[in-house]
Design a protein that fits this description.
single chain, mainly alpha, elongated, binds flavin-adenine dinucleotide
């Protein structure tokens, strides 16, 4: 089992990784202890660690990776207007810092819409980001529950396909 920095479990929005490493360590210890108790320490027996992490906190961090890649692709001027006009709301910074799943409160929507009217060039990146986040979230929630080499290979290939256009944006 790989945890923490070695497993790329940092929060993409700001690079913090202590909480993820502690959480993953706790999860790995619980799964490992149970496997040892049953005298079965195969990859299959330890897989619940991977599934639980990737479909939970891993999904949240992957969504912030989308957020990071799209934000990085913007020009300085677009970034300024993203914040100044309220397309990006204070709650986004809070959610990313915790991290809580990427979400938008109903209360923040009018401000964001007004921001997008003032800066229509941001509409494309924001829509792309929202759609990619939904796709990534679904894909990570469906992380293989059981250890099966072929299924995992397919899952990884799909993840790479989803991220490929985003990685090229910057
Ligand atoms: C400058 C900086 C500031 C940061 N600030 C924050 C912050 O404010 N908040 C936050 O949450 N995160 C922060 N992080 C990230 C955080 O430090 C890491 O995410 C976290 O330490 C990961 O914990 P870890 O145990 O996985 O890895 P590490 O803390 O890197 O521990 C790995 C250990 O393994 C040792 N090691 C490596 N190779 C071997 C080997 N072959 N044999 C034996 N030992 C080995 C290393 O010496 C190290 O002690 C920061 C990182 C940096 C670089």
């Amino acid at each position: 089992m790989v945890i923490g920095e070695a497993a790329c479990q940092v929060i993409p929005a700001h690079g913090s990784g202590v909480a993820s490493a502690l959480y993953a360590g706790h999860l790995a210890a619980k799964v490992g202890a149970s496997a040892l108790k049953q005298g079965e320490t195969s990859t299959r027996a330890l897989w619940p660690y991977s599934h639980k992490y990737q479909s939970g906190r891993g999904a949240t961090l992957a969504c912030y990776d989308v957020n990071k890649l799209v934000v990085e692709s913007l020009t300085n001027d677009q970034l300024s207007r993203l914040m100044e006009y309220g397309v990006m709301a204070p709650e986004d910074t809070w959610n990313a810092a915790v991290p809580k799943p990427v979400s938008m409160s109903l209360r923040s929507l009018p401000g964001r819409v007004i921001g997008l009217i003032k800066a229509p060039d941001l509409l494309g990146p924001v829509v792309d980001m929202g759609m990619s986040i939904a796709t990534v979230k679904k894909h990570y929630k469906n992380y293989p529950r059981e250890y099966d080499c072929e299924v995992i290979k397919q899952w990884k290939e799909k993840a790479a396909q989803i991220f490929a256009p985003l990685s090229k944006m910057g």
